[in-house]
Design brief:
The structure holds two protein chains of two kinds.
Chain A (H helix, E strand, L loop, with lengths): L1 H5 L4 H25 L1 H20 L47 H9 L25 H13 L15
Chain B lengths: L23 H7 L4 E6 L7 H12 L4 E4 L11 H10 L4 E6 L5 H13 L4 E5 L20 H13 L16 E6 L9 H11 L3 E6 L3 H13 L7 E6 L5 H10 L7 H9 L5 H17 L4 E6 L5 H10 L15
Parallel strand pairs in B: 1-2, 1-8, 2-3, 3-4, 4-5, 5-6, 6-7, 7-8
Helix pairs in contact in B: 3-4, 4-5, 5-6, 6-7, 9-10, 10-11
The chains are: A mainly alpha, B alpha/beta.
Chain lengths: 165, 331
């Protein structure tokens, strides 16, 4: 566990891995479409959860923004902030809510400055969370979201809507 | 027009686009004047007269009153109700909205209602955590964060739609602001976060208490390097320290306030009887230094239960002469 958590301090390695997975997912997208998103989600959800919890303390929001947030999970912020730190960070860089932990966004910023591929993503505005996506595979969500956009979904904030499982 | 108006801090050409509202606060900022806002904490009462009484003193010298939204996560009259009472009485208000207590449905509904009640200035905040307030047992919401709230409010105004895409007719008209945090970590990221908030729709900013002018200058240098001072108005938060104890209170009980060692030491070395005077002196010195910084459009006075001291500070720095946000004041 400790070793896996330690990976977070090597954000460049993690972003390379993410890039690989992202490209891989593009390749398998037609296959996933044939299998069906609901079934693919059932298969992928648990392994994804185990791996991401071990490395990132993932909360399974189903809307992974790790590559835009210095490979640091913004859902571990007690206020669940997805667009940067609040104004309550303490003088010793710890969290307003939990003085026992370093501010998630202090870490996210520091790590993203060491990421050459996705590092500038920290300046992109992350839309409000879609709670319909929670507890499901983020990768499958991304793919089905893409399809929803292709179908001309009215509003990307609303996202893919309910996936009937 | 006051003497400081021509200091060249901001020319009207460089100031953001056309007015969003017909409000006096926005007009004063766009005119290039050095603006004064003051924080107003709604009382624990059901009598509207209590609201008006509490607001009257600072309301007369400030260009606008910030009406806090359960500040420090403590329960009071709601910001929207207190803002409406003050607006009806002719005050110019900045309605503070935090993401702590409401989800996106309630936030949008309340914002729309506020606008229908004549409230024109909205300050979008994340909000202090519930654990610092008087109901630490409660559930924190944070469905949106401050940047998402800003973006939502901007879409409501500019595109005339809710987040769901449903139309609002006629759409709201409001002037949007956010908080800037020059004094808390991660310092290097703060100017970028300011840029992100501008992108999301913020046009004015207010900061937490400034006790560290060197830090502010450093921040503003980076803000100017990014050209952000030409795309927004920044008001620096200030307030008098009442005593040595208030230093401890601010540092331990109010999230995001950093009192540098030198300032704390200065208060500590002052005899108790003269601490109020010393706190006032410190504040006046900071006002004077802040006014010299390029890109600063005004100050935001936070002086809860210290209205007298705040009025003296404004008077002594030449900022307190004109009646502005009050019914009799005018723009």
């Amino acid at each position: 566990m400790g070793i896996l958590r330690g990976l977070r301090d090597h954000p460049h390695l993690l972003e390379l891995a993410y890039q690989l997975v992202e490209k891989g997912m593009e390749k398998v997208h037609p296959l996933v479409r044939r299998i069906g998103y609901a079934r693919a989600n059932r298969w992928l959800r648990s392994p994804e959860k185990i791996a991401k919890q071990a490395i990132f303390d993932c909360k399974m929001c189903g809307q992974c923004t790790l590559h835009f947030t210095g490979m640091t999970c913004p859902m571990t912020c007690p206020k669940n902030l997805r667009n940067g730190p609040c104004g309550g960070v303490r003088g010793d860089k710890t969290c307003e809510v939990d003085p026992g932990m370093l501010c998630v966004w202090v870490e996210a910023y520091e790590r993203s400055s060491r990421m050459s591929i996705y590092g500038s993503g920290i300046n992109e505005i992350q839309p409000p969370r879609n709670f319909l996506l929670a507890k499901r595979s983020a990768f499958i969500n991304i793919l089905s979201l893409k399809d929803a956009e292709l179908r001309g979904a009215r509003d990307s904030y609303v996202g893919i809507g309910r996936d009937r499982t | 027009m006051r003497s400081c108006a021509g200091q060249g801090i901001r020319t009207s050409e460089s100031a953001v686009i056309e007015p969003r509202t017909d409000g006096r606060f926005e007009a004063r900022l766009r005119s290039g004047a050095f603006v004064v806002t003051a924080e107003f904490s709604p009382p624990d009462s059901t009598d509207p007269q209590d609201v008006l009484r509490a607001a009257s003193r600072l309301g007369e010298v400030a260009d606008a009153l910030n009406v806090t939204d359960a500040s420090g996560a403590n329960c009071h009259i709601s910001s929207v109700a207190a803002s409406a009472i003050l607006t009806r009485a002719g005050y110019e208000v900045i309605h503070q909205v935090t993401c702590r207590d409401r989800n996106r449905i309630a936030l949008q509904a309340d914002l729309l209602g506020a606008n229908a009640l004549g409230i024109k200035n909205i300050l979008c905040l994340t909000g202090d955590d519930v654990t610092v307030g008087d109901h630490p047992q409660s559930k924190r919401v944070f469905d949106l964060d401050s940047i998402q709230l800003l973006q939502t409010a901007r879409r409501m105004r500019d595109e005339g739609v809710f987040l769901s895409g449903r139309r609002i007719s006629p759409p709201p008209r409001w002037f949007l602001g956010g908080a800037d945090h020059p004094f808390v970590e991660p310092f290097d990221y703060r100017p970028q976060r300011l840029a992100k908030k501008i992108l999301a729709g913020a046009e004015f900013f207010q900061t937490q208490y400034c006790f560290d002018v060197a830090r502010l200058k450093d921040h503003m240098q980076k803000v100017r390097d990014l050209g952000l001072h030409e795309r927004c108005f920044i008001l620096v938060g200030l307030g008098p320290l009442r005593s040595e104890r208030s230093v401890t209170f601010l540092q331990t009980r109010v999230p995001g306030v950093i009192v540098p060692q030198a300032v704390a030491e200065r208060m500590r070395k002052t005899p108790a009887a003269r601490q109020r005077e010393e706190g006032k002196r410190i504040c006046i010195e900071i006002v004077q230094q802040v006014r010299e910084i390029e890109g600063i459009s005004g100050i935001h006075m936070m002086a809860y239960q210290q209205e007298d001291t705040a009025l003296e500070i404004l008077e002594e720095t030449g900022l307190g002469k004109i009646r502005r946000s009050s019914p009799s004041g005018g723009g």
